[in-house]
Amino acid sequence: MNTSEGRSVQLLTAYDPNYVLINLAEQWNRSELERLRSESTFRCPICKKVVRLRLGTKRIWHFAHKEHSDCQNDYEHESMYHLTGKKQLYQWLSFQSYSPLIEKHLKHLNQRPDLFLSSGKLQIAFEYQCSSIPLENIQKQSKAYIQAGIQPIWILGEKRLSQISRFVFRIDELALQSLLYSNSTYPYLVYYCPLKKRFSILHTIIPYSSKIVFAILDKWSPNNVSFPFHFPFRNQLPKPYIDKWVDKLFTSRMYLHVQREPAVVFMKHKLIQKGISPCHFPSEAGVPTNYLVWFQTPAYVWQTVFLIEVIDPLSVGQTVHFRELYGMFLRQIVQYKIKLRRDISDGKSHLSFAIMEYLKCLTKFGLLKWGGKAQFTKQREVQFPNSTSESKEQLRKMILLLN
């Protein structure tokens, strides 16, 4: 939802004197609306106060509360970008023979999703988010929807998309709370631009750090996108994607000495105690795996901690159950002050999934052997590279094994 001070509250729906809902997202001609405006008084569907029908030539037609409205529905002060996008998304769903409701007030939740869809037993609330809101707001809304048996789907305004370079994007916590999940291994995000009338799909998303993710960006015309979303994502990482990840990790090694994040400081101190240069952290650390979204701390940091505190102390040939490995690492999370994400939108996974995924990678690298019944046997010692260039080549070969 978009809020801004000093603007009248704007919406696309209002009641006429006969309590017929006028929906401006439908097809109207100007003369018909001008006639209605001259003959009728329109009222907000929630607070029942008078709203004005605005039929400008530069902005999307809309209803507006008076300045500083105290509408109890807590309508947001929507930008024209948001209103236009909401209207186009309504039409996009309607063209697919759905019957979406726009700005429907869900009284039992005191929520007003931008679009609401009831399809069989499935109820879906679409939120088109174009501006920043407090993170707790989106978490609270999503939780309320889910508890009521409503699936929340957050579509972001494309202007929120920040690309640094090919495969590298800057992303905020709001976007990470909006991740969508499909049969693909990795999550994705849906963006929409009402000015260019296109969807931008950010997929194969793997967080590198708390604000940087690696991903693939595809752009689609609404004519080529249908709901439910089904995109031909591949689980295999493209080679240029892997090369970019390895280059980024190489840079992180080179500049590790300037990092001041508590987890990094603890990690560097531990490596020095072991007589290892911090930039020579294990070759098996920094692997782009699924479920990394559970961590705010970079993968190369927490994976290094896992290797030096959980795996390295084991004897070669020793067998350990996953529960024990997981419990040992949970204690290190506290000690190293590794940052986690507690509330993310994927209700089908858990932090333990990220650890199990990493353990599976270590079996492919030959460090561990899968013994069945969630047991792992250590096969060799953890590798510490002799140089950063050596680590770069070793990691590239390891990641290619995962494909």
Give me some keywords for this one.
disordered N terminus, alpha+beta, 403 residues, 3 domains, four-stranded antiparallel beta sheet, Trna Endonuclease, Chain: A, domain 1
> Which structural class fits the helix and strand makeup?
alpha+beta
Q: What strand order characterises the main sheet? A: 7-8-9-10-13-14-15-12-11
Report the total helices: 10
**Helix/strand order:** EEEHEEEHEEEHEEEHEEEHHHEHHEEH
Number of strands: 18
Q: What value does the Rg take, in angstroms?
A: 26 Å
Gist of the model:
The chain is of the alpha+beta class and 403 residues long.
What can you see in these coordinates?
With 403 residues, this protein is an alpha+beta fold. The protein is 32% helix and 20% strand. The chain has a nine-stranded mixed β-sheet, sandwiched between helices. Strands 1-6-5-4 form a four-stranded antiparallel β-sheet, with no helix packed on it. The protein has a three-stranded antiparallel β-sheet with strand order 16-18-17. It is elongated, with a radius of gyration of 26 Å. Residues 1-7 have low confidence and may be disordered.
Q: How would you summarize the topology of this molecule?
A:
Elements: E1 10-11, E2 13-15, E3 21-23, H1 30-39, E4 42-43, E5 50-54, E6 62-64, H2 80-94, E7 101-102, E8 115-119, E9 122-129, H3 135-147, E10 150-157, E11 162-165, E12 168-170, H4 173-176, E13 189-193, E14 198-207, E15 212-220, H5 239-254, H6 262-273, H7 299-311, E16 319-321, H8 322-336, H9 351-364, E17 368-370, E18 375-378, H10 388-402
Parallel strand pairs: 9-10, 10-13
Antiparallel strand pairs: 1-6, 2-3, 4-5, 5-6, 7-8, 8-9, 11-12, 12-15, 13-14, 14-15, 16-18, 17-18
Helix pairs in contact: 5-10, 6-7, 7-8
